[in-house]
Structure to design on (119 residues):
């Protein structure tokens, strides 16, 4: 986890201002995409569909999704399989969260599935 603070290990995400950092999870999340997601202040994450249940823990900043839900630093949020939403960063401070997405996520025509190094 020390590498999270460095530039290495982060890859470009699905839109401008979004970066992904894959974390290899243990046996209970072997069928999940696990990793950190970082968004610059004032940016958005595009509409996406959860292929399985998702749980996120916001570590820094906050977000508001297209359904009107706000999640702030220290809070966790869950989305069920099949749900679709987008979200934007609240304010100018960067957003950092840890995501565990069972079976992956579909963003437009692309999918990030378990085992994908972007996840």
């Amino acid at each position: 986890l020390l590498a999270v603070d460095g530039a290495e290990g982060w890859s470009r995400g699905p839109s401008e201002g979004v970066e992904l950092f894959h974390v290899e999870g243990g046996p209970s999340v072997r069928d999940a995409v696990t990793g950190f997601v970082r968004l610059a202040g004032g940016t958005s994450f595009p509409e996406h569909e959860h292929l399985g249940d998702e749980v996120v823990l916001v570590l820094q900043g906050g977000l508001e999704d297209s359904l009107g839900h706000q999640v702030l630093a220290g809070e966790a949020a869950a989305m069920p399989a099949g749900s679709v939403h987008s979200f934007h960063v609240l304010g100018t401070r960067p957003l950092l969260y840890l995501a565990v997405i069972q079976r992956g996520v579909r963003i437009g025509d692309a999918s990030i599935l378990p085992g994908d190094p972007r996840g």
Q: What stands out?
A: The mean pLDDT is 92. The CA atoms of residues 5 and 24 lie 17 Å apart. The chain is about 0% helix and 50% strand.
